[in-house]
Amino acid sequence: xxxxxxxxxxxxATIYDLRLIFTSGEKKTYTTEEIVELLDKIAxxxxxx
Length: 49
Known about the structure:
The chain is mainly alpha-helical. Helix content is 76%, strand content 0%. It has helices at residues 4-24, 32-47. The mean pLDDT is 88.
């Protein structure tokens, strides 16, 4: 079972992944559906690591 510190690191990494996606993209606004899709993609990529 992961420790609280490991969970915090993963959460921060995921937030950083989102930050990179939002700041590197051409779009300035996102719909709820688009954000959910991005979260799904990150989760699936993490599962394959």
